[in-house]
Amino acid sequence: MRLYTWPVALLFSVLAAHAQAFSTPKPGQVIEVALEQLHPTQAVVGFDQIYYSLGLFADKPAKVFDEYCETNGQGDADKVPKDADLHRPASFSCKSPVGTHPDEMKTVVVGPGGQLYLTDGHHSFTTLWEVPGGGPQLKMWVKVTDDFSNSPDMATFWQRMETARKVWLKDNHGKTLAPQQLPAHLGFKNLQDDTFRSLVYFTRKAAYGKPDDGAVAPEFLEFYWGNWLRSQIDLSAFNLNNKGGYKDAIQAVAQRMVSLAPGSQVGDSGFTAHQLGGMSQLDQAELKKTFEKKVPYVIDYRKSRS
């Protein structure tokens, strides 16, 4: 009898484990995934923003562990020995357990078949995809915001995503894309570069920040700004291949952003400048920090790739 019941019990335990492993994650849950499992909800990123991070990590390798820990909601890295390996979390430590700071975590929506669609984190995760020691199989923790897995078909799923403003269906020139044109994976070879998206990022805390009324900033906030700026500023007037020209472009973008009245719509975004965290006055001190600490990494890293 024991010889018979043991395999049966084992079979049920295996089946139960499989059922648990493939159960649909629920909103509010924090789950571990490999980067290659995440389906982008945008076709574009700002390469220069990622170049800044990659340049910084090349100069100060321990900084990549801060990125890893913060993105997992664990605060900064704590102890990072010389043999620390992103693929072996036990080889280093973060200051807090996973999910301690949920607002810093990246977000996903569960789609049909359990596919995970990344709605925030394309830049951070592409950085970790591209950085030496990272890659598509690197495992990270993400926060589930919505479960749309019960959508009867993909057309319905994408309609729900658009209604919830969980997808950015424009290319790097602001032209509309169909959901089927979104890339299947993260990484430079899969994503397009949007220079305006990078320039907006470099005005953070100088021309925009989190909405000051406690409202949650919408996903793709920087893209709304960038798409509007595309009709406001001619980038051909700037030499983006040297530090001086790049700084001038950031300055022009920042000044145009703060010139927009708080109640004015930002292009066709459906949001006002205030709702997108727009500031009414430019913070030159913050811009100076960006010019000194970030722009050099961008230009130098870009040159290292050529």
TrEMBL record:
Position of the signal peptide: 1-19
Keywords, ordered alphabetically: Signal
SUPFAM superfamilies named among the record's database cross-references: ParB/Sulfiredoxin
Domain of life of the organism encoding this protein: Bacteria
Claim: Repressor is one of the keywords in the record: no
Key word Electron transport present: no
Name of the protein in its database record: ParB/Srx family N-terminal domain-containing protein
